[in-house]
Amino acid sequence: MNKKLLIIPLIIIFAVLIILILPKPVTQTGFQSEVVADNLDIPWAMDFLPNNTMIFTQRGGNVSLLMDNGVENIGNINVTANGESGLLGIAVDPQFSQNRYVYLFYTSNNGNRVSRFVLNDQLQNETVLIDRIPSGSIHNGGRIKFGPDGKLYITTGDANNRTSAQDLNSLSGKILRINKDGTVPSDNPFNNFVYTYGNRDPQGLAWNPSNGILYESEHGDIQNDEINILISGGNYGWPNYQGNETAQGIQTPLYVYTDMTLAPSGIAFYNNKLYVAGLRGSQLREISLSNNGTSIIGQNALFTQLGRIRDAVVHDGYIYICTSNRDGRGIPQIGDDKIIRIKVN
């Protein structure tokens, strides 16, 4: 057989293989999107500096900046990375231009911790604000965000100790609220760090800027993932009640996923919609809200081709999401993990 004739099918086969292994384009009808960082090691949380530079964590301990020419590492935190633990949440101080403070939630050998750092060329001068938050290989919570009141809000999981979520003397299974210096705000409901309790594994916080409503995402037990509206002193039921179960004194979720496991993580509020990062659900969940933000009028599953999505944040007219396919529970794709920028048309 003519060798030239053999080359042609080999070229075709090679071309097909290249197409199959190349990263699939990030597409979604009605949205424009692009990958802005790839080959990351489990990015967990994102925030922005006043100069519009993204700062983000990777669960193994790296804190990085997303620059025009790539990713720049600005610190490596000594973390205990066991299962779901490690370096998790990040929050930039609202007065960063004056104090250059950045806050991190991470797992040390004594439990979960929230610390404040000073960012110059590198993170330095750690000040521990809360220490010995119960940690475990699962249910660490880990999201930290500044509210419109200037307080730092912290989500903590039950660390696989179910009953701790109802114990007001425990820091686990809660939403905590602290002053920037680590003290207890005078208007906290129980005269300690606890803002809400009965939370199983909350991983997302977002505020409605028009009315101050605080939304939270929370992992349920065997489905029953919840989207909640948080109120000061509220009891969200776990482990005695979850999902659509009701009881006197227990806050009712805004929505419960009973027919699927979304495993919701970070959430963002944009144009009267919530955008919820779904881990096991492998999607960015778009939730349309009523005008007053207290009920849901529609939902869509977006970007379902990316695998596990860990966080969603809004900045300067864009939604940013990060994948979590290298966290031991996903199937990594070419270039994982990624940060993706989305423009809503």
UniProtKB/TrEMBL annotation:
Keywords, comma-separated and alphabetical: Membrane, Transmembrane, Transmembrane helix
Range of residues in the leader sequence: none
Segments forming domain Glucose/Sorbosone dehydrogenase: 40-329
Entry keyword annotation includes Transmembrane: yes
Highest taxon above the source species: Archaea
Transmembrane segments: 5-23
Name of the protein in question: PQQ-dependent sugar dehydrogenase
Native source species: Methanobacterium spitsbergense
